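fold-stage: in
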Amino acid sequence: MNKFISILLMTVCSTALFAEETSSKEKSPLNYSLLTSLGYYPETTPKTGSSHFAGLSGIYDGVELVTEFNATYTMPFLKGSDELTADNHLTFNLGVELSPVTVAPLASVTFSPIAFLEFAIGGIIGTGWGLTDDIQGLAKLDESKPKYENLTPFAHWYFYTWASGCFMFDLAAVWEGDWHHVVATASYKVGYQKMTGTKSSVWTWRNTYGQASGWVYEQEYFLGYQMPLKVSTVGVGTTLWGNYQASDYGNFSRNYEGDFMTIDIWPMAEIKLSQKDILYVLADFRGRRSFLEKYKDDAHEPFMTKTGREWYFYALGFQWKHTF
């Protein structure tokens, strides 16, 4: 069972749309922000068989904390005189992501050629270490045991580079009014991920078990409503992600279905605590692999046979953004 604040950190452009009004008031092109994400995971014991729902089996299965510091510089680029291009810009971002078991510098460049479109490229390279058998930053699957074994920090690296496109819509753009902000986003991200220095086809990065090197994708769709209130946005989103090729998983590709699509559905709320502080709260319902065999642990999972999809309540997430 992966422990990963997946939605909070995979979001491509939804929060950018929510923050558009605030950011436009900032005069300085250089901004600093601190993003702290907390995930709480209840326990759900997987069930065997075809597609089904699984209920909670315990109130606690772990927590995860990730902090990200970013420095962002925004400059006008290809600006026009009409409403659709008046805010065209380039944004450069440098940051570092920290968790109890990983450290990872990151960088991205975002280009907005028109009010409702946004394109971005970026990358992250990180290393990690283990605290316990269940809390691992960087590890490979030893198929002979089977067990995830920690890799040497700063001798092995997780590498991920990506490009994305995002479409954004706000009803208030065509029907003016503080209470007309029905917002929607749709994004697609293509990436390549790799664990260096190991021949193992399956590995883990920051307790996300069952990963494989290769081309990956993320799709995200969100529909929400913005209000001139302290609870400024509510809505629901879905994220679909996975590997393009089952062969990335080597000998496990067929039975394990290496190109399986994981689906997350997440109702969320944005709360404006102050001019510089925003809190995001979401609940994550996930569709993962269902197996023929009785589930034992993460290390045995690639050896099992996928038979369908299991839906369950995955996590409760909180994200606090502070702008300096």
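fold-stage: in (second)
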Amino acid sequence: MGDSFTANAWDFTDPDNACLRHGKTAWPAQLGALMGVYGTDAMVDPSCPGASIDSGPGWTLGVETAKADKAGAFGPRTKLVALQFGLNDHWGQTTQTLWKSLQGCVFNLVDGCGPEAATQGRITDYNGVSGTLFADRMRNAITYIRYYAPNAHIVLVGYPELFQPGTDTICLDVLGVAPFIQPRGGAVVAYFDRIQQAQQQAAQLLNIDFLDARALTTGHGLCTDQPWLNGVMDPRTDIDGLFFHPSSKGDAVVANAIYDRYGH
């Protein structure tokens, strides 16, 4: 269950976002193939681009949990429940989402996307992200899953490294030769850092596992020599892949890590 980093596909022809499209190389698909359950009723994947823990609009963790439950995903034979959420939620004093911040902040070369962007409402207020709040917002769903799938490993999957922590400059590869560079992008980097920390803390508070995808993908973010995330038609990754999202290689690293830990 999760958002676009889980589904890794977006159907731009679907105005209602029915969430029926999933990337064939997304980490759940690759994980399912490794475990021999992809395309069978032994695997359920209700992940949805734009999904949030509880902010909406659109699908939430609660909605996806209900859909998975209806599909028969939870029971004493359930082996693994993997979740990836947090980036699309509202945090702090703003209702701005990261996706909607792209135009007003990330790609805004005039005003930039520095720390002041959060107080100006041009990006999610990363100062409001905390492990305690993250855990509180997930607790009802986790409690439900644990009750109805008592033998399952529940793992919160982190996000890959997009930008090197601590930097102010962010960029996006375009055609593999001409990157778009935002020299004042500290708010975006800080947001990803806070989400990473909150996910780790929330997993501890909820007594579930955490998969550190950032550690697995360190040094392979956007605009690196060997990127594992898609730029815009970058031939070094998936040329038609969803930009800002993992390439098939990046997803393979996550899928294999989950399989090594839980799939045998």
